Amino acid sequence: MIISGAASQALAAALARELEEPLARAEYDRFPDGELLATVPDLADSDGIGDTDRAIIVASTVSSDAHLELLQLQDAAREAGVSEVVTVLPYMGYARQDKAFEAGHPISARTVARAISSTTDRVLTVTPHEEAVCEFFEPTATAVDAADRLAEPLPDNLVDPVFLSPDAGAIDLAETVRDAYGDGAGETDYFEKVRHSGTEVEITPSDVDVAGRDVVVADDIIATGSTMSEAVGVLQERGVGRVFVTCVHPLLASNAVTKLSQAGVEAIYGTDTIERQQSAVSVAPSIAAHF
Ligand code: R5P
């Protein structure tokens, strides 16, 4: 059966359809003192859900509550005697805290990975910020690459397109989107990025000529939108055509959508690893390919 965390219900349903497996009904409650209780009544109902040899729990850990809820769903599955518990983290929260950046800091990604590993047999996570976070899980998590899905919502009339990444680390992603968009047609390049704080980034333009051309800027995550809005601002100064921004994980925290709109983006696209209005394409087929 497929079991969903509260924040991943649409993706869990899409995965259930892809895998032709039953979708369980989970319930998400909160006690008056604030404690959470996530339950899966269908685990107790052998008539309703059928074979429970394997439970696939799909839960993006987009908040502390979502983390806790995932641990509860895993435990409920084990408690019900499910023999294989598979955890799918469409978006792994805390993955960007993958080092102790200063003395006295924790390695938060490792901490949450250890907790999640304690009650699961297998972990899959979609396009992690750094694939090395997979090694924090025991056994090592599988990274599901969903970058090619980002080509799907793009308009099919892009003019002489350029596919850019906002930093060198995401160039593979931009190349994957370019390849998936049109058999390798279109140029790719990247900006140089220096991050000064959580919300301040400095973008140095790439050399590619963007005047009059449509540009797709692709990244793994749009969080505060600072990286993307800076990149789009640089493009606007150079007489770009239309600018589309796309990402696997549309976190779009705080005023990110406003920042991007003010920067002049034509559209923001993301996947359903984080369920937002901008989730234009599902990663369910990419995840299903690993079963
Ligand atoms: C960092 O290297 C990531 O790939 C993203 O560029 C970053 O997380 C985006 O964050 P924000 O939207 O807050 O600039």
Describe the structure.
This protein is α/β, with parallel strands linked by helices. The chain has helices spanning 9-19, 46-49, 64-79, 108-117, 171-182, 226-237, 256-263, 284-288; strands at residues 2-4, 27-30, 36-39, 54-58, 84-89, 122-126, 142-144, 162-165, 187-190, 192-195, 201-204, 215-222, 243-250, 267-271, 279-281. Helices cover 27% and strands 24% of the residues. The strands form four sheets. A six-stranded parallel β-sheet has the order 9-8-12-13-14-15, with helices on both faces. Strands 1-4-5-6-7 form a five-stranded parallel β-sheet, sandwiched between helices. Strands 2-3 form a two-stranded antiparallel sheet. The protein is globular, with a radius of gyration of 20 Å. Bound molecules: ribose-5-phosphate. Ribose-5-phosphate (R5P) is lined by residues 129, 166-167, 169-170, 201, 219-227.
- Strand portion: 15-25%
Distance between the termini: 13 Å
Number of strands: 15
Q: Mind summarizing the main beta sheet?
A: 6 strands, parallel
Q: SSE order in H/E notation?
A: EHEEHEHEHEEEHEEEEHEHEEH
Bound molecules: ribose-5-phosphate
Rough shape? globular
Residue windows where pLDDT falls under 50 for at least 5 positions: none
Radius of gyration: 20 Å
- Average pLDDT metric: 94
Question: What class would the helix/strand composition place it in?
Answer: alpha/beta
Number of separate helices? 8
- Helix fraction, binned, reads 25-40%
Spatial ordering of strands, largest sheet: 9-8-12-13-14-15
